[in-house]
Every structure is written in C-alpha cells, then in structure tokens.
C-alpha cells in the first residue's frame, strides 16, 4: 500500500459555522508534514475526517488510495494520536494497549515492545488515571505506533512533554519519516515545528492558506528585505528612499529595507559616506512566515491586537 | 470480528470496577435468594401433625389436584360406557356478596361425568368425559389434557381400546359425535370405570386493603344425577378420592342409587396444581430483579465510559466499521452477563431449595425442560436486558440518563405491576408492552384455562407465555441496538 | 452561605438538563396518575380502592426524573472536573453541599407541587366517570379534605426527599451511573423483597425501613389502621434516609480530595 494521504475539497458545516471550506492537501511519504493554523482553522476537524471519525459534507480523503473506513486492520496502516487523555482511568496503560492490539490481531508481545519503545517501562502496569500529562502522551504515541503503520497522524504531540521528551519525539518523528512513512503533525505553535517539519500545510478559516516546503515558505516570507544597523538613521533613510527603497524603522538604530538588494544598499551607503555597523539579509523565522500567512485567516483575535 | 471480540473482552476484564460489579450482581442474586427462602415458612396443622399432606404427582411427575367423588366398578380389557347426565346442581358455601349462608349454585368448572382411571390412587392415569357448570362438555385426561365438546350435550360415552380412549357426546343419545381420542400410555388391562363429580371452590377477587387484589376461594360442592347408565347391574364401590380426614361434612362425597338413577356428589378438582400452597422454582431466583439493576449499571458504563473520556475515538480508529464495534460490545457484555447470572442461578437454585424445604415448604415439582428454561432463561433475561441497557447507553451517551431509562423500562414496570395499587388490567398491559415482559421466562407453572385460579401478576402469573414475554424483551433490545448502530454510523464521533 | 446559594442556583439554573428534568417530573406525575385512574373502575360501594393513592401513583414513575436531576447536580461536576473550580471558589465544602441541597429541594418541590396538583385535578375529571362517585363512597377529591391534603402535600415532600437522598448518595459515590444504580436499587429492592417472602413479621419490618414503601405511606387515606406504618412516621423514615445519605456524602466530601 502506498503511504500517503490525499485530502480533496473537504467541506463541513456545524450549524451556521463553516468548519471546513474546501480543505485540500496531500501528505507525502518519507516526509514530516506540519499542519498548522490558528485555533478554529479546522485542523482537528480535518484530522477527524481523515480518520473517519467525522463525516464531511463534501470532499473525500484517501489514505494510500483507500478511505479510512474501508481499511480492515486500520492501525496496521495508520497510527494516530488525538487526545491522549482519552483513557479509562481505572485501566492500566498496558491493558489499554492490549485491547487495541487484540482489535488488530496483534499479540501482547507487540504491546510490551511498543511500551518499551516509548519509554513507559514499569509505569505501563500502573492505572492510567494516575499518569502525568507526559506519560499519557507517551502512551498515546505507543498506541499510534502499535501496528507499525506506514502513515502517522499526530495531533499536538508536543503537549505536556518536558524538554527531554520533546527532543525524544523530534528524533522519533525524524526516524519514522526516514523509514519512508508519511507523518502528519499538527500544532498551533509554529516554533515547535521549526527544525522538525519538511513540509508545511497552513490552514486558516477552513482551507489551506499555504502548502509548501519549509525552505520555500521562509524564503517567501523573508522577501528581499535587508536589515541595517546604523547610528545615522535619518541620513540612511534619506539616501535609501531616494534610491526607491521602502524603509521601516524597527529600533533605535535599526532599519529594515525592502526593494533593494544588500549589495546595492552597501554601495549606496558607502557612496554617500553614511556610516553603518551591520548590513544583513533578513531571514524570517517560521513564526513570522506563519503570522504573515494567517494574518487574515485568524478568526478570533483580541481587539487590542488589531 | 474475532479481533474485535477479543478487544472488547480485554476492555471489559481490565476495568476492575466492572468485573466487581458483575461479581456483586451474582452475589446479590444468591444472597437475596437465600434471604427470600429463609423467610418463607409453611406448616400445616392437622390430624397428621405439622406435616403437610403430600401433593399427588401425575403420570408425568408434575404436581396435580386429584380429589373427587367416584362411584366405580371394574373394567377388564376393552369396553364402552354410556350415561346421560340428567342434572348438575350444587351448593356454594358463604358466597358473596354477603358471605353468610349456604346457597344453591354451580361454579363454572364444576364437573360430573364418566371416567376410566387406572386405580383410585391419587395421581393415577385417567380419561373422563364430563359436563361442566359453564364450559360445556369436555374430554379431559391425565390432569392437563382438555378438549372442548359442545355446550348442549348431556349424553356421554367413553370407549377403551387398548391404551386409547375415545370420548363421544350426544344431545339425544342417538347421534353421537366424537370429542377426541387420547392415549394413556401403559394403562393396565384391569382398570376402574364409573361416575364422578367434583367442584373446585368459588373464586372471588376483591381489592386488597393495602392495594393489589385478593382472591378468596369458597367451598363448593357439585351434585350430579345420572340415568341411562350402561353399567347398571354390576356392584358399585364409592370412594371419596383424596378426601382429607376431618374435612368439613360439606366437602365430603356421597353416592346414592335409586332405581335407574344414580346421584354422585362431591367437591374438589381434577387437574394440574397451581402456584397456591407450593413454592415454584423461580422463587429461588427472586434476587434477579435487584441483580439486574447492578448489571444495567455496568452495561451502561461499558459504553458511556468511552464517550466520557473520548476513548470512543480510539476505538473507532482501531475498528472503523462502527456497527461491528457495537455488536461486538453487545456480544461480549451479553456473554459475560449470561455466564455470571448462570453461575449465580446454579448456586442459588439448589441452595434456596434446601432452605425452603427445611422451612416446611412444598416445592412444586418441575420437569427438567422447564427447570432448564427457568435457569437458562433467567441468565438469558439478564444478558438481553444488559444488551438493551448498553444500547440505551449508546443512544444517550450519558450514563445517568441511560441507567435511569433502562431501569425505568425494565425493572420499574415489574415493581408497579406486582406491588402497587394499579388495577390488574393495567398491570397486565405493563407486562405485555414493556421490556419487563421478559420476566415471564421465569414462570414455571403455566396458567390453565380449565383450572380456576387467581391468575394475576401479583401472584406470579404473567400475561404472556414464557418465550413470548422473552421475545418482547429481545425485540426491544434488537430495536434499541439497531437504532444505536444507525446513530453511531451517522453521527460524528 | 448566601453566596454559595446564589452560585449553586446559577449553576443549576444554567445546566442544560434542569428544565427538562423539572418538566418531566410534573408531566410524568400527572400522566401516569391519570392513566392509572382511567384504567381503574369502581363497580360498587365495596370496591375498596384508595382513590387518593391511585390518583397520586404517578409519583412512583416521576421519582426516576427526580433521580436524574439530583444525581446530575453533583456528578456532572465530578465528570468534568469542574468540582475543583467549585471548591477553589467556595472552599467551605459542607456549605456548598448544603446550598446545592437547598436549591435542588426548592426546584424539585416546585415541580412536584405542579405535578401533584395536576394529578388531583386529573383525578377530579377522570375518577367520577370510572365509578368513583359519592354513591360508591367516593366524594369528589378536594384539597380541603384533610387526608387528601396530607396525601397531596406529602407526595410533593416525598419527591423532594427522594431528591435529597439521591444527592447524598451521588455525593458519596461520585459516579452518576453508580449513584443512579444505588438509589434505584435502594428504592425498588424493598417492594420486590416484600412480595417474595411470606414471613409477616419481616414484611412489616421491611415496609417500615424501606424508603419507598414507608415514604409512600403518606399517600394512604383508607385502612390507615392496617398500614404497617403511619403516614407521617413513614415520611419520617424517608427523611432519615435522606439525612443519613446527605451526612454521609458531606462527610466524604470533607475527607476526600476533590
């Protein structure tokens, strides 16, 4: 089976609210695809539709060419982490994995292997009700890995993990993608995905706002802006503005210059004998790229921030 | 499907509270059975001391009534007997409304006619053609066999050929109609044949002072005059079959011969034994109602726990074919409940029987088939009720509302029908229309139309036959499970 | 205490199911009482029915709706973890329970009074047509009549006390399904047992200690001398159950972690 996810034209309304409005994207094998967007952008609904939990009014989702509900032993194809708190508190972590294993025709051996893989260790035989947030998250990831699936969907996997845990999961995700699996990781914090995701799908107001590789996104957001540090701010602004650049003040002695290449800026300033301390090509962070893209797509934002 | 079943079984057994709930349900069934048995006493005061007289057993081993006045002679080999019942009259002692005098009257099931009987021993095989007070002529045999003739006939005939006996009737003694042919297996060559009369008591039902109804039965006696008796000329013997020593004079049988007319009078009845005066096997399982409440709670939790924690999403990820998930859950829960209840019943029945017998109670004998039906049926009743509760839980997704609804439709109608001021008709409709109809599977002694009895839910008689009532419960369970599957498929998880 | 009362009132008022449960209490009381009345006939002066008890039979069904309301008033908070917010805002846990009990009792009483009045009205309309006439010894039901008033007011109090019993059990048990099971088990166990045994001493004892049988003795207006327990004494037994349950719930509330 091909390991990819194709999401095509999903639409879904909850009463008067449009949750999904033509959501379309593809998750490719061998890559970690980040799925980001502000709260209410439709990320969770999309993931639930992918997993056959919710039905879309329109559109379809194929996993390796098949709808989720047609999969016979789905956890052997797709692993998912949705809500790590969705546990029966009086059942032990191992027993939770055990019933899942039985539903896929897997044995207790696989349960113990996967519990060891996520580092649950002895805690697996304790009642899940007493687990910390981090342990629940590890149990949820163990459940996702149980059937050794070719496709993984993880909703906010970094939630509640300590720094060690975050490093662990980043490495885990990287190794899963390196095996040729398709990995979709959702997050509302772009910074969590920086350095993890190879590809990004940015959602806003129920549709895809951007769908590109991380490198392309950052380049696009960076534009051809140049960061300039100078003590002679007014002179620099005059010179550059006359040359046709758009100049913005960003600090006591810093400016951002758009519309001119860095070499040209250096040449102009030198020609007019304006002193400067630093000229650098500006590189946007993933966070900035994201803010740029979703500026219009944020549904709820405090009025003061507008 | 096997994987699904295993998964649901693992889910069930790994939550200690649910397993303990099932154990509690089993304990309740046993302990309440013991409590009930320990508080049912019976004793008789009479010439034989405190021991109650033995209840005769019919040819098939079931308890029977066999008390009547019988004037008889020998019948050797095949033969035929014909009589005309000239009149059937009687007296009722202290009848309503004023309950203070003895008046003439014939109760509907007063009976008189001719009988071929293996011997005068109570419970021995017989066949009889008779006229009755209000139900025309009948051909009855071996206590529960009953075939109706016509209302107007007064000539009766019995013909024996080997072990088959044919009953016939006639209005004029000329044109005869066969009412039926019955086979009395193993009937010996030499038997008794003769004239008999019996009258069951006169049942009056009144509203109880504290709710419910009370049936009172007043002593009645039938007097039958026979002529055109084909047996005339041979010597007669009269026996008051089954008469108790020291019984009131009014209940004693008599036989008088004057010319061609023979008069037989007597009271009592010939037929199956009802619930009165004995403890049926289902008495030992009266803890099932309360055990069921615990089972319902566990059943509802088995599904609503998934909704409360959002675990249903994990379940549906593992098994996206939703209908199967619910069916697997129902099968696992049904099987667990069935086994639990069966173990409890297998412990409770012999234990409570021993206690009941120790308290002087007469245990109504049941056939193995009926006992199996009651024991397995009780386990099945709890299992199907658990599935119904599970389906209600899946439909409501809220445990409190689901538990209340399940208990209100399964247990409450039974409580209302047997322990409230509701009139009998309404009680019976409650036990026909609600899932509580399923409790009928426990009834071991059937209602016989040919036996006068106070057939009301309060006394342990259900308006539907055992499997019919159980079918109603199964219907509700199937309907609820079907709706739950449809809803689970349609709704977003 | 005033603040707690106000908070609990707002909480219960804004709970989605409250209105439905209250409506169900009133409707079930009237509907089932009317159905029982319509199904009964009194053919003669000796029909020996307790017309008042018959008219108020609906209480036995509507107590299920009372149980839903009362149980959800507390287990809803445990189910969602909101109980921690409640105790953070109002650390005096006994006062919270007392306020909850007061608000719940008030609301239940209102719904129960509506249901009971409706039942009496329905009985006035239905029963005379079913043979419950003055000639058969049944004057038109009237609340001006002492025993009728006692039965009617007592039935409303019965439902209120059932609500408090449920609240106490639910506070102790914390899980809604288990709480409902315990309460209904407690209510229905006794009538089933009483029917199954033949020992009259035990029967009378069970009636006297049973929350449902003893509590409903308040509805009796005929054969009072034959009842195993008097009307007010019976309601007292139910009160004792409710107080014991609330005390038990309150104690556990103080002792246990939220």
From TrEMBL, chain A:
UniProt keyword annotations, A-Z: ATP-binding, Nucleotide-binding, Transport
What molecular function terms (GO) are annotated for this protein? Answer: ATP binding; ATP hydrolysis activity
Q: Where is the ABC transporter domain?
A: 5-230
Plastid found in the keyword field: no
Question: From what superkingdom does this record's organism come?
Answer: Bacteria
InterPro entries reported in the protein's UniProt record? AAA+_ATPase, ABC_transporter-like_ATP-bd, ABC_transporter-like_CS, P-loop_NTPase
Q: Which Pfam families match?
A: ABC_tran
Q: Does the keyword Lipoprotein apply?
A: no
Family that this chain belongs to = Belongs to the ABC transporter superfamily.
The name on file for this protein is Multidrug ABC transporter ATP-binding protein
The species this protein belongs to is: Acrocarpospora corrugata
Query: What is the taxonomic lineage of the source species?
Result: Bacteria, Bacillati, Actinomycetota, Actinomycetes, Streptosporangiales
Automatic annotation (TrEMBL), chain B:
**Sorted UniProt keywords:** Membrane, Transmembrane, Transmembrane helix
- The name this protein carries in UniProt is ABC transporter permease
- Membrane-spanning ranges: 18-38, 287-305, 326-352, 372-396, 403-424, 467-486
Q: What is the lineage of its organism?
A: Bacteria, Bacillati, Actinomycetota, Actinomycetes, Streptosporangiales
GO MF annotation terms: ABC-type transporter activity
Which Gene3D superfamilies has this protein been placed in?
2.60.120.200
Organism annotation:
Acrocarpospora corrugata
Q: Which GO terms describe its cellular component?
A: plasma membrane
Transmembrane helix: present as a keyword of the record?
A: yes
Transmembrane: is it a keyword of this entry? yes
Automatic annotation (TrEMBL), chain C:
Keyword Acetylation listed? The answer is no
High-level lineage:
Bacteria, Bacillati, Actinomycetota, Actinomycetes, Streptosporangiales
Query: Which terms are listed as keywords in the entry?
Result: Membrane, Transmembrane, Transmembrane helix
Coiled coil segments of this chain: none
Q: Which domain of life is it from?
A: Bacteria
- Entry protein name: ABC transporter permease
Any stretches that span the bilayer, and where are they?
54-76, 97-127, 147-170, 177-197, 232-253
